[in-house]
Every structure is written in C-alpha cells, then in structure tokens.
Amino acid sequence: MSVDQSDENASLISTVITAPVSLKQIEQVEPVEEPIKEEAERKSDLERLQTAFEGVRALQELAREYEITDIFQDNGGKVLQVLILLGLKISPGREGNDAIDAEGNEYELKTLNRSLNKNAGVTTHHHLNRDILAKYRAVKAWYIAIYEGIELIEIYKVSPEMLEIKFSEWERKLDQIDSINNPKIPMRLIRQGELVYQRDSSQEA
Questions:
Q1: Model confidence over 105-156: pLDDT tens digits?
Q2: Which of 78, 110, 157, 166 is catalytic?
Q3: Out of 67, 70, 78, 98, which one is annotated catalytic?
Q4: Strand-pair partners of 158
C-alpha cells in the first residue's frame, strides 16, 4: 500500500472533494444505452451521495493532518483510522505506508480485509528487493490491522525479530533473483504478535 504525497495529486483531490457532481450535471451526462436505474432514481441516489460527501470532506480534512492526501486511494480511510488509534502519522515523502511517532521512530503499517479471503496472508511489496527487506528489518514494529469490509476487527503489533523467519527465507531467494513479487506473511505468524486492539463484541450486529 502506498499513499501518494505529491502536490499535483493533493491539488487534484482538493478539487474533487470541493466540487462533486451536481444534480444539474447528471442531466448533461449521456448515460449508457441500458442504464441500471432511470434518471429519477439516479437523481435520488446523487442527492444521497451529496449528503454523504459532506462527511467525506470533513474526513479528508482530518486525513491531511496525518499526511494522507486521498482517503479513497490505497486504503487511505482505513490507514487514517489506524494512525489515530496508534498515535502515529504517515512519514511524508516515503514510499509505502511507513508511519512515524513523535520521536521519529518508523513503523510498517498493513491492512487486511478478511472478508475477501479469510486465509489471506499479509501482502508486502510487488518488487521486494534487498533495499525493501532492509527497511522491513529496520522499523521499530509492524502493525497489521484486520478488517471485515470497512469494520476494524483487530490490530496486531509484530516485531521485526518475529518476522525474521520470513525475512531470511526471502533473503535466500534474493541470492538467486533481483526481486520477489509480493511475498506474503502468513496470518499464523502475525497472530503470534501482540494483540493491541480488538473490537468489542457488543459493537457487532
């Protein structure tokens, strides 16, 4: 996961957030030949969207305080929730979801949606090489947030030392190739870490 911090992207997002589609504009758009909903229904849906967008704007303003320029990109909204809970913020200008605390200590953040695949491992990097591996080893801790759709279920804190078994495995592979395509960290290893957050069962529907 990465959070784009470019000025160009921030400007574009600011424009989109402050100027969503209007009801008048929907009349100017030529829909597909067989739209799923008639124009009246789409206007009603757009009104609901406009109402919801007020909350989205407020959420985006909050996200900027944590160096997230787009809550719709790369799990930005979920990352924001995790940052606030843990007392971290995104490290500006760095690739990936690296976060920092008040003393500048660095952390690796990952989010996982278990509703898509309950047995899925934690993704890493599409071109994991020795430089990325060194970064993974150097952070103070990894935080892995487990979601069910958009609902946060658990957060685990895992030290780099606990992940060394995978790091060493990847390092051996890198003796033969330049990079590895997104190797996964199994959940059984993540769950050996410290459970620092668990949703109250009373919050479940």
A1: 999 999 999 998 777 899 999 999 999 999 999 999 999 999 999 999 999 9
A2: 110
A3: 98
A4: 142
